[in-house]
Amino acid sequence: MSEIAKLQIGENSYEFPLTKGTENEVAIDIKTLRGATNGVITIDRGFKNTGSCESEITFLDGEKGVLRYRGYSIEELAEKADFLEVAYALIFGNLPTQEQLNKFHADIKSKSVVDDDIKKILDAFPKTAHPMGVLSSLTSALTAFNPSSVNVDSEEDMYNSIVKILGKFPVLVSWTMRKKQGLPLNYGSTSLGYVENILKMMFEQPNESYEISPIIKDALDKLLILHADHEQNCSTSTVRIVGSSHAGLFASLSAGISALWGPLHGGANQAVLEMLEAIKADGGDTKKYMAKAKDKNDPFRLMGFGHRVYKNFDPRARIIKKAADEVLNDLGIEDPILDIAKGLEQEALSDPYFVDRKLYPNVDFYSGIIYRAMGIPVEMFTVMFALGRLPGWIAQWKEMRLNKEPIGRPRQVYTGENLRSFVEIENR
Ligand code: ACO
C-alpha cells in the first residue's frame, strides 16, 4: 500500500501521510488538512471513522471479535488474572511481579480512607437518587478533599492520585448502595484482597459477620476484568477530553461516570434487565419484542444488542454468558430471565434484521443476570460497570497526560443563520 493518501478538492490535490499501528491499522494523518486546504475540515458524526489518539493500552478488532489489554487476550486475563493485576497492567503497561503487586495494593489500602465529611454530602441526596448521579457527584467532590490531586506535575503526584482513587472509589460505591438500603456506612478491612473487600463493604450486615463466597468473588473478579477497558468508547473519550484541559483525575473520572450512565453505553446493563423483566411480566413473548425492535416506527431497541465496534461478536459477551450459566448453577439459582435472554439471543442470531446489521449480544446482555444473582440491586449495575472501568479510565487519562496531548477541541460546520441585524423587542 502506498504510504500516502491523496485528496482531490476541485482542481487542487493534496497528500497526507498514512500512519500504521502495531496491529497494522491504517489511519490518514490529517493534521495539516485545514492549513493546506485553506479551511477545509472533515465531518464525522459520532466519530465513526475518526481516531482521536494513538494508544498503547487496548487493542480491539471488531470484525474478528478480538480484545486485548496491553497485548494480553481478554479470554486469558478473565481466566487467569485477578482484577488488581489487570488494573496494574492497564495503568503501568505490564503485568506486575508479586512484589510490585503487593506494593501497589499496600499503597491503595493506605489511601482508602474517605474524609468523613463526604458522608454529609451523601446524606443530602434523597434515597431515590440514581446511584450513578450520586457516584459522579461524590467522585467530583473528592477533589475538594484532595486538592493535591489536581496539579499532577510529577510522576509521584500522578501515582498518588491513582492509588488514592483506586482506594476510595470502592468505598464510595459501597456507601452509595448502603445509603439507598438504609445500612450503616462501613470501610471493609485492609486484611482482605481488593475484590473481597469490595464485597464485604457492599454486603456486610451490621449484625452478622460476612462470609465471602468464592463463587461470587470469582464472578465479580471476572466481571470487573471484562469491563476494565475498551479503548476510545464514549466514557473513556470523555475522561480523556476533560483531562486534556488539565482538569484533575477525579474531575475527569466524574465526567466519565456521567457519560457511562446513559442507556446506549454502560446504562444498558440496567436497561437489559428491566427489558427482560418487562418481557417476563408480559407473558414471555419474545417474538413480540423482536418485532418491536425491528419496527422503525417504534423507539424500542433490543437492549444489550449491537455495538459500535464489534460487528461479529463481542468476546466479553461469550465469556459472560458462560459465567452466568456457571454462577447460577453454582449458587443453585433458577432465573427465568436467563431463559428469556437465551431465547432472545437465539431468535436474533437467525433473524435477517439482526444478521444483516451485524447486531450481536454485547457485554451488557448477560452481566445483569450475574449481578442480580449476586444480590446487587438493578440500579447499581452501571455503578459496577464504573467500578470495573476505573483502571481503564485511569490508564487512558495517564497516557493522555504523559503524551502531552493538546486540549481536545473539535471543529464544526456551522449551519445556522447568516449575519442579521438586531431587532428591538417591540418590533419582533
Ligand atoms: N435493536 C434494534 N435495532 C438496532 C439495535 C438494537 N439494539 N442496535 C442497532 N440497531 C439498528 C439501528 O436501528 C440501525 O438500523 P438502520 O440501519 O436500519 O437505521 C442499525 O442497527 C445501526 O445502528 P446504529 O445505532 O447506527 O449503530 P451505532 O454503532 O451508532 O450504535 C449502539 C451502537 C448504540 C450500541 C446500538 O447498537 C444500540 O443502541 N444498542 C442498544 C444499547 C446497548 O446495548 N448499548 C450498550 C453498548 S455496549 C457498551 O457501551 C458497554
Based on the model shown, name its key terms:
428 residues, mainly alpha, Rubrerythrin, domain 2, Citrate Synthase, domain 1, 2 domains, 3-stranded antiparallel beta sheet, binds acetyl coenzyme *A, Citrate synthase
Compile the SSE list and pairings.
Elements: E1 4-9, E2 12-20, E3 26-28, H1 33-36, E4 58-61, E5 66-69, E6 72-73, H2 74-80, H3 83-92, H4 98-110, H5 118-124, H6 131-145, H7 155-181, H8 194-203, H9 214-227, H10 234-243, H11 249-261, H12 268-281, H13 286-294, H14 315-330, H15 336-349, H16 352-356, H17 364-374, H18 381-402
Antiparallel strand pairs: 1-2, 2-3, 4-5, 5-6
Helix pairs in contact: 2-9, 3-18, 4-7, 6-7, 6-11, 7-8, 7-18, 9-14, 9-17, 9-18, 10-11, 10-18, 11-18, 12-15, 12-17, 14-17
Bound molecules: acetyl coenzyme *A.
Active site: 307, 364
Keywords: Transferase, Tricarboxylic acid cycle
GO molecular function, one term: citrate synthase activity
What does this structure look like?
Pfam families: Citrate_synt. Keywords: Transferase, Tricarboxylic acid cycle. By secondary structure, the chain is mainly alpha-helical. The chain has two domains: 56 residues, Single Sheet (Rubrerythrin, domain 2); 351 residues, Citrate Synthase, domain 1, CATH 1.10.580. The protein is built from 18 helices and six strands. A three-stranded antiparallel sheet has the order 1-2-3, with no helix packed on it. The chain has a three-stranded antiparallel sheet with strand order 4-5-6. Bound molecules: acetyl coenzyme *A (ACO). The site of acetyl coenzyme *A has 19 residues, from loops.
